[in-house]
Every structure is written in C-alpha cells, then in structure tokens.
Design a protein that fits this description.
This protein is α/β, with parallel strands linked by helices. The chain has 12 helices and 12 strands. Helix 5 links the parallel strand 1 and strand 2. Helix 1 packs across helix 2 and helix 10 crosses helix 11.
Length: 344
Amino acid sequence: MRYEAITIKDIAKALNLSISTVSKALRDSYEISEDTKDMVKAYARDHNYKPNPIAQSLKKGLSKSIGVVVCNIDNHFFSQAINGMEVVAGSRGYNVIITQTHESFEREVANVRHLSSRSIDGLIVSLSAETEDIGHFKQLHDQGLPIVFFDRVTPEIKTHTVISGNFKGAYDATLHLVAQGYTRIAQITSANQLSITLERLEGYRQALADSGIPLRDEYVRFCPHGGMIQAETEQAIRGLLALDPRPEAILTASDRLSTTTFSLLKEMQVAIPGEMAIVGFTNSVSAHIFDPPFSAIMQPAFDMGKQSMELLVQLIEAKRPVTEFERRVLDVELRIRASSQRAR
C-alpha cells in the first residue's frame, strides 16, 4: 500500500474549514481564533501532518538542500568532515546530499550536474584526483550558485576555502624522520595537480633542504588516484624498494595512501620500522592499534567540515553580494608512534 502524507487540503475537508483558514492556523496567524488554531493543530499532530518542504522552498526561494562532493565517504578524513558538515546543516535547517566521485573527473561532472538539477542552494567540494578542468564549477559559480572548497581546493574560483596545514604537517613529519637519523626519506603522494599534493610536497622538500639533505627526485612517487587503485600504490612501493640506495623511510601524503602503503609493506614482509620507517597523513581511528602503531599527521577533519558548512550557509543567506573571501588554514597534529621511530 502506498503511503500518502496528509495535506492542508485534507485537514480543511475533515474539519469543514477553508484551506486558507487551516494554513493561517498552522502559521499561528493572529487572524484565526485560538480555539480554531488549537483544533487545527491537534488534528495535524494526531494525523502526522508535515509541511511540504518543496512548497515551502518555492515560497522562500530556497530548497534547504546542500550538495557535497567528495572522493569517497569510506575515507576516514572525509567521513569525519561530513559529520561536521551535517551538524551545522541540521542546526540551520538544511539537508545534505552527499555524492562520491571515486577520484573520477567524469563522475564528478555527472554528480555536479545531478545536484544542480535538484535546485540545491549551494555546494561544498573537495576536488577529485583526476580533476584539472574546473569549468563545471565555474559555470555554476558564474550563475550565482554559492560554492565552498575544502581540503582539495582551486585558486581559479574566488570563494571561501578551508584547508589544513598541509605544508607544516609534511614539514614536521619529515623533520621528525630526520631527527630519528633517517636521511634517505621518500614520499608517496597523490595526483601532482592537487593542492594537497603540492603543499605537502613543498613541506617535505623544505624540511630536507633545511636539514642539508639533497632531494632525490626518484624518491618521490605519484599515485594519480590517491590510493584508490591499489596497483598504483604497489608499483610506487616496489619502485622505491628497487632503488640503490633504497629509502629508509616513507612519508605518505594522504589518508588512503597511508593505510594502503602500511598494509602492502607488511604483505611484502618489509619490517616496520626496522627496514622501512613510515609516517603519514591519516585520520584512521585505528592508527594507534596498527602493528606497530602508526605515526600519523592528523587533520582536524570534523572542524574543517563544520567551518566549510558555516561559510557556505553565510554565502547562501547573505543579503548582499559577498566580495571578500576567507582562506582558513587549520592546524594539524603530528602523533609520533612506533612506525617512524628508529629502534633503540
């Protein structure tokens, strides 16, 4: 049996009132007597009446829906960020529609088209690993759709951005490895055009330079899909292990790359940290119970999600055009554990 929600028209018919009277009573209008209001509200409550959000949005000019575009929600960082977004959205009366690109540019474009067709009020975006052309976002932005970028951002659209301290995280992690006595330090990172890749690579390079350690280009390996395709990560690891001299330590520059690299090293029976130390960006809640416990650069994912949503709602509800935009950089935390510490 198909469920059909009760409408204002149904209430009016049941109580022998006009639709206008019922509507005003539900809105607590001064034009309607208290007795009539009580009667209408009681009937609506008893019959589980809910206002039609589509009809309301047409009146207010808002759909009260916000689209979110991320690579995948099983990534610890993104799942935590989405939790932060939903806290803010729920408190402000917005619904969140989440889509996943799985690091595919084509899927990102399709998802954005679908979301825009549903009359969303705004978008929160973290770019896919394949995205180099952001024309699909530019078009919507030029048409007036509020957009906020977080984590993986672009300078090509003037809007709010929320990122973490990518440079500092990679810099501090590399200095930590140097302090442990490692000088042959590699980095496994994501697609070379992503903002997080560029910033984390620069932090790694600067730390090596400040430590007087020459940069070896062959020690930097790019995984175009950021760990989504395990074969890419495995190829990067095997390439590093085949070098002479091979690295003593690896900095992994994204959540999925970190956990995948760790597990692959274990499968290859490479002792951690005896043969290869590892530290990486990951928000995995299990990092401390890895064997050995994983040294991690933790991003404030929940707060990044909250702040992204707060900034987007401000854009949506702004009474005047917004011309000044914020670039928020949130601090990261390096948690040192056994995976990166030289045995004593």
